[in-house]
Amino acid sequence: MTAMFEAKMTPEFRDVRGRYATATPKMLKEKDKMLHIQMRRYVAIAQDEAPKKTGKFARAIHFKMHREKKTIAVGEVFMPQPLGTWVVGGTKAHAIVARWAAALRFFWQKGPRGPGVYFFKSVNHLGTKKDPFTARAQRRWRPGAGKALNKLSKRFVSRVVKK
């Protein structure tokens, strides 16, 4: 699986009221917690925006946290592949050919000869329309994430200035 979304927060706090400051371990922990909360929030929004024929695809969207260079917190959001690419980017019309079996099996309620199971060596798929649910999720997520980051940075500035 490849990440569909990545958020990085670096701990270097530059030019805080004319001074250069470094984050304390407590500040870094707060930052990590805030990123974790925001990543969890983004996943919930992405799951809400994702198509839900059965709901399995949406439920499979998840995130992982990790460190980069010991100081940079990174959160990555993943979705099932290659399905996620097909959902977000859409597909062109294409043929589907049976490769590992003698035929493709379909159950149709309204088949050409009535409801039942039908077998074909190949079918022509019409393709799928794009569903940019990840972009919609980011638009919904961004204002709240910005507010959380602003609130955190104000707390950091007040702590650094008090020193």
Which helices and strands occur, and which strands form pairs?
Elements: E1 3-9, E2 13-16, E3 19-21, H1 25-49, H2 56-59, E4 62-68, E5 72-78, H3 83-89, E6 94-97, E7 104-108, E8 116-120, E9 122-125, H4 133-162
Antiparallel strand pairs: 1-5, 2-3, 4-5, 6-9, 7-8
Whole-number total of structural domains: 2
Indicate the CATH topology of the largest domain.
GMP Synthetase, Chain A, domain 3
Uncertain stretches: 15-20
Major sheet: arrangement of strands: 1-5-4
Total beta strands = 9
Structural class: alpha+beta
Q: Report the biggest beta sheet as strand number plus sense, adding barrel if it closes.
A: 3 strands, antiparallel
Structure, explained:
The protein is an alpha+beta fold. It folds into two domains: 3-89 and 131-162, 2-Layer Sandwich (GMP Synthetase, Chain A, domain 3), CATH 3.30.300; 92-127, no CATH class. It is built from four helices and nine strands, in the order βββααββαββββα. The strands form four sheets. Strands 1-5-4 form a three-stranded antiparallel β-sheet, with helices on one face. A two-stranded antiparallel ribbon has the order 2-3. A two-stranded antiparallel ribbon has the order 6-9. A hairpin with a 3-residue loop joins strand 4 (62-68) and strand 5. It is elongated. It starts with a strand and ends with a helix. The model is unreliable at 15-20 (pLDDT under 50).
